[in-house]
Amino acid sequence: PGRSNVLFLVDASASMAAQRRLDLAKSAALGLLKSNYEQRDEVALMVFRGDSAEVVVPFTGDVGRVEDALSDVPTGGRTPLARALIDATELLRTRDPALLVAFTDGRANVSHSGGDPWQESLAACSAVKAACAAAVVVDCEPGPIVLGRARQLAAHLGADCIALNALQANDL
User: Fold this and answer.
1) Partner residues linked to 161 by β-bridges
2) How far, in whole angstroms, is CA 87 from its chain's centroid?
3) pTM for this structure?
4) Which of 42, 37, 51, 36 is nearest to 82 (CA)?
5) Residue 134 carries which DSSP code?
6) Nearest-CA neighbor of 124 among 146, 100, 148, 160?
7) Which end of the chain is more exposed for a tag (fewer CB within 10 A), N or C?
8) What is d(CA 146, CA 131) in angstroms, rounded to the nearest whole number?
9) What's the average pLDDT block by block, 10 residues per block, for the chain (172 residues)?
10) Angle at CA 69, nearest 5°, toward 67 and 72?
11) Backbone phi, then psi, for 59, in 5-degree steps?
12) What would you report as the CA-atom Rg of the chain, rounded to the nearest whole angstrom?
């Protein structure tokens, strides 16, 4: 009772590698994983970069596997956000209740089906929303140029949006 299935969806594109943002996201995820361990949640890790999203660790009660995988996440390349959301939907549909925790700056730049990458990402949100009980978007966008895409993504997901630096200061 009270156990959840939490999918960590981590943007490992080049924009996330800048200014150690992925490192901050990883440490925030590790803090959340400690909480998942205490609750005996099942957790999974999906990483997206380049042209695809990859399930690095399928749902497991072994939080250590996710911690280890997080420390080895390679970075670089473009941001296939729409593909990641579509793939996450399929994985989330296999679990109930399912929760999504997405770490991204929202800077989608890889099309899934030949359209505008950002519009495709927003369009994928309704399926994600239907597949999970709740979602949180951790906004990894730094200044000085802020597009606010993670906040827009969260709004389309019906999700809370938390700034990465606020999450850090929150001492999970």
Assistant:
1) 137
2) 12
3) 0.90
4) 51
5) E
6) 100
7) N
8) 29
9) 84 80 79 77 92 94 87 89 98 95 94 96 97 93 80 96 73 40
10) 115
11) -50, 130
12) 14
